[in-house]
Amino acid sequence: MSHDPQAGLFTDGAASEAQVQQQVEALREEIRRNDYQYYVLDAPSLPDSEYDKLFRQLQLLESDHPDLITPDSPTQRVGGAPVKAFDSVTHRVAMLSLNNAFEDDELLAFDKRARDALGGEIEYAVEPKFDGLAITLTYEHGVLTQGATRGDGYTGENVTSNLRTIRSIPTRLGIEDPPALLEVRGEVFMFKRDFEKLNRDQQAKGEKLFANPRNAAAGSLRQLDPSITATRPLTFFAYGLGATEGVPALASHSSAMDYLASLKLPVCKERAVVRGIEGLRNYYVSMGSRRDTLPFDIDGVVYKVNSIGQQLELGFVSRAPRWAIAHKFPAQEALTEVVSIEVQVGRTGAITPVARLKPVFVGGVTVTNATLHNQDEIDRKDVRVGDTVSVRRAGDVIPEVVGVVLERRPEGTQPYKLLECIHHACPVCGSHAIRLDGEAAVRCTGGLFCQAQRKQAILHFASRRAMDIEGLGEKLVDQLVDSSLVQNLADIYTKLNLETLSGLERMAEKSAQNLLDALQASKKTTLARFVYALGIRNVGEATAKDLARHFGKLEALQASHVEDLQQVSDVGPVVAESIVEFFAESHNREVIATLVAAGVSWEETAGKQTATGSLAGKTVVLTGTLPTMSREQARELIEQAGGKVSGSVSKKTHYVVAGTEAGSKLDKAQELGVTVLDEAGLLALLAE
Ligand code: IVH
What we know:
The chain is 37% helix and 20% strand.
C-alpha cells in the first residue's frame, strides 16, 4: 500500500473506489500522526500550511465519496449537530471519586491503613490532580464510540460530539490490533496559556469571561452545540481505566498508564512511582514547588497503590477507593467580601484601586487586600463595595479579584467609579487627577509635589537594581518624607547625617550609621544605574543601559533631542519624548546637579559604543520558565554577548526565548513573526 498520501491524487481521474479508499485512509493516517505529534507530544512535525493541505485533500475526497466517510475520520471532529439536551449514559464501571487529605496526619492514616492491610512498605503510583472535569471515553475495537461526563458516578451525560472536537483525544487508537473494549478515564481541562488567550478573545468579542481554566473547561464541554466546543482549546489527560475486554494483563497502575500511552492516548509526563510515606511526601513537595510553573492548573496530587492486585484487596468504602487518595494543595482561590475600595498612588502617579477584603486564607497566606488594577478592570468585572468576590493568589503574585459572585450581591450597591470617588483629585496631594486618552490608569498630575510619588521615587532610586541603598526601605522613607527631612532625591545625600537620623523614631545609632555607610557606598555607581534610578517615565533598566552605552556621558544625554534619542535601539517617539521632558524640567536638572555635587559618580565612556559579541545589537525578550537557567542568568549571558533584554515584544524584537508557561509574549512573537527560541536555541546563539 502506498504511504504517500499525495501519490496520484489528482492525476488519475478514473481512480477505482478501492484506490480512493486507500488514499483516504493514508491521508487520515498522516493527519492522525500529526495530531498526535502536535497535541499529545507537543512536538509539531509539519508546518501548519502542509497540515491544512492534507486536511483539505481529505475533505475534497470525502465530499466526492460521501460513502467513505467514517465517524473516526479527522474531518468529522466537528460533525455533530446541536442537541436540545444531553442523553444520559450509564457507566459500565462506576466512576468513583477520591477521598481528600489536607493534613499530614490524614496522609499518614491513609498509608497506615494500606500497610496494615497489605503488610510492608507500599509502592505508589503518583500523579498530579488535574483541575478539570472527569470524563470517560469508550473505544470499541479501537474506535471512539462514546464519551461521557462523570455525572453522579453511575450515570453521566453523553457528550461524545463535544469530546470528538478535542484534538488530543484520538478518535481511533494507535495500534494494529486494538482491544474489543477499552474505557479510558481521565480529565478534560485547559492549559493556562490557552485559557488566557480564550479570555482575551472573549473580551475582544465582548463575551463573558471565565473565572479560571476549570470553569472554562466545564462550560466549554457542556455546550449543546459542538461547533462552539470546537472553538475552545480543551485538552485531555488519561489517568485510569474503566471496563475492558481483550486488554493484555496489567499488573500495576503505572503499567496501565504506559499501556494507554502506547495507544497514543495523552498521559501526563509528571507521573512517577515512589515507595512509602517518604516517597509520597517528597512528591507532594516537589509538585507543590512546581505548581505555578506547570502549564496547567493542579489542585493537589493523587496517590494510588500501584499493584492492581493490592488495589483489589483494599477495595472501596462507599464511593471512594481505599487504595487511592488526593492530597490537596492550599486553595489558590477563595471567596470573601469587599469591605471598601481604596486607592494607592504609585511612582509615576498612577492611582490604583485596591479592594480591602474581609481577611481570607488563600494560597497559604491571609489576604486582606487585592488589586483591582484600573477602572477598565473594575468595569469588566463590575466589582462593587459589599460584593462577595473570588480572590486569587498564586505563588508570589499580588492577590487579585478574579470575579464577583453576582448571586450574593446585596441590595443597593453602586458601580464603582474611581475618578468620582476621589473627586478628580489625588487623595495624597490634592492635585488634579486625570485619565489620559488611551490610558487605563488615572494619574495624579502633582509630580514630585505629591508625597506619594515622592516616596515611590525615592524607593525606586534606592532599589537594588538602581542605586542599591541597603536599609532605605518603605518605613524609613515614609518617616523621612512625612517629617519633611527629605524633599527630593538629592536630600538623601545632603540632609541625612547621624544627628538628623537619630532624631527619627525607632532609629538606633547603629542602624543610622549603617544607612550612612550604605549611602556612601552607593555613590559609586554606573551611568546606566543612575539613569534608571532617576525614574524617568518609560525608561526601564534596559533602556537606561542603552542610553548609557549610546551617550557615554550624562551631559550628552541631557543635551540630546528627540531625533538623537531615536538613534538608540528600541527608543521610539514616546520614550524619547519622556526623556526630553524630564531633562527640560529645571527642578530635575537641579536635583541631578546636587546629586553629582554630593559625590555620586560613575566612569564615563566615549559613548556610541557598539557592542561586540554574538548578540551585538540584538534585542531579546524572555518569557516563561527556562529548564535550567533563571531569568537573571539568561539576562546576564545575553548582555555579556552584547544583546539587550527587553520586557515587551515589538517589531524591533530580534528573538523571543520561551520556556514553559510562556504567555502572551509568545503569542505576540508568533503574530509578528519574531524568531522564537528555546533555552537550547539561545545557548547555541550565545556559543556562536
Ligand atoms: S483517579 C477511583 N486521578 O479527581 C479513582 N482522579 O475526586 C478515580 N482527578 O473526579 C479518580 N486528577 O476528576 C484520579 N490523576 C487523577 C486525577 C483525578 C484529577 C479528579 C477526577 C475525579 C476527582 C476525584
